Every structure is written in C-alpha cells, then in structure tokens.
TrEMBL record:
Name the UniProt record assigns to this protein: Pilus assembly protein Flp/PilA
Species for this entry: Xanthobacter agilis
Keywords recorded for this protein, A-Z: Membrane, Transmembrane, Transmembrane helix
Annotated TM spans: 20-39
Domain of life: Bacteria
Length: 54
C-alpha cells in the first residue's frame, strides 16, 4: 500500500493535463469578460450616436 501511495504522489502525467485545463478555463473567462465589455461599449456608442443624430 505504501508503494502505491508513493507512485500516486510522484505521478505527474495527470497533473499536466489538469494544469492545461485550468489555464484554458482562465483564458476562456478572460476572453468572455473582454468581449462582454466591448459589446457594452459598442452599445453605448450606438446610443450616443443615435442621440446625437436627432
């Protein structure tokens, strides 16, 4: 049992996949946040332009 625990602790193959998954999730959240802010900014610009045109 001690040998199995030692192997499990020193195993790194699954850790790498998990780290890449966390990085991908973090980047996805960052991209979605930026795109949402850009959409909000464009909506404000559209409203401002429409009000200026009247």
């Amino acid at each position: 049992m001690k040998l199995l625990m030692s192997r499990f602790i020193h195993e790194e193959h699954g850790s790498t996949a998990l780290e890449y998954g966390l990085i991908a999730a973090g980047l996805s959240i960052a991209i979605i946040t930026v795109l949402a802010q850009i959409a909000t900014t464009f909506a404000r610009l559209k409203t401002t332009a429409a009000a200026a045109g009247n």
